Amino acid sequence: MRLRVGVLFGGRSGEHEVSLKSARSVMDALDKTKYDIVPIGITKEGTWLAGADPMEALATGDIPGENYPVAIVPDPGVGGMISIEEPTVLGKIEKLQVVFPVLHGTNGEDGTVQGLLELAGIPYVGPGVLAASAGMDKVVMKMLFERCGLPVGKYLYFLKKEWTENQERIIKEIEEVLGYPCFIKPANLGSSVGISKANNREKLILGIEDAARYDRKIVVEEHLQGKEIEVSVLGNDDPEASVPGEIIPSNDFYDYHAKYVDNRSELIIPADLGEKLTKEVQSLAVKVFKAIDGSGMGRVDFFVDPQKETVLVNEINTIPGFTQISMYPKLWEATGLSYSGLLERLIDLALERFEEKAELKTIF
């Protein structure tokens, strides 16, 4: 009997389109002899769709098309989703044995969907609530890394309200502590959306104003020297690290366009780091994964200076991209695990974690 897998994609996120590309790759690669795939698309307004072809509906804007609205019910007795033909009328129940969230950014990678699936009692691929939320918030993430003794670069953070009230103080602190160039980022967003590089005060102000459009918390980081290195991590309690890869961005830095649009950034796999640095980044990647209590998957990004033999952790992405040019699956392919084999392993890890948690007492 095939395992019924719900694949979640789209969502209320600045990375909606990236999610569609990733989900298409995932659904195309899943073994149809083992898995009964149930596509579930989430519109930019937050409506969940299933039925004929929710991917086509989201891509073309023909919503709902021949699809119908659905909802995951936070009741473990249901174990799936219910169609909603009318606002107050519940339709048929569709059981789901596991859910594969291919959602990037807010409302999908930040613990919200993971919390819903926990309540619903449905196994799901990827990070749990804590790892997803901690991995999404760049400030909380860096604080956890520091607490675990992991090497991170200098950074400052502040709230949008503080920026409105104390611009001069914040600018002065950034210039004194970090200097130029520096990077401005929304604290809770991924895939380089809202991220900019500032070489002077004018660009710093513009960058902060742009980041504040996406989040109430802004983080500013020092410019780190060295190679941009990424390592994929796979597992639950005993995670493993892939071979490292190097990214040479097609633009000034690895922004949204360089990641997903122009397909001109160069990926060097495996990265030419030498045995010592290779082992170091692999070891650190596993420690980073454990620091946020990761599960399933994670891609850890570093800045490595081979001359000085220094390694700094930049961040972890708990639901990394799965597009054809994404590093996470490419690194595992180079390590010896095929794309379809990787997806199967992730589903097995989701079921393994669910079964382990099911053995715990929830009442006393």
Protein architecture, described:
The protein has 364 residues and is of the alpha+beta class. It folds into three domains: 3-124, Rossmann fold (3-Layer(aba) Sandwich), CATH 3.40.50; 135-151 and 225-357, 2-Layer Sandwich (D-amino Acid Aminotransferase, Chain A, domain 1); 155-222, Dna Ligase, domain 1 (2-Layer Sandwich). Helices cover 35% and strands 27% of the residues. The protein contains twelve helices and 17 strands. The strands form three sheets. A seven-stranded mixed sheet has the order 6-5-4-3-2-1-7. Strands 12, 13, 14, 15, 16 and 17 form a six-stranded antiparallel sheet that branches. A hairpin with a 5-residue loop joins strand 2 (35-42) and strand 3. The protein is globular and about 60 Å long. The protein starts with a strand and ends in a 6-residue tail after the last helix. The model has no long low-confidence stretch (mean pLDDT 92).
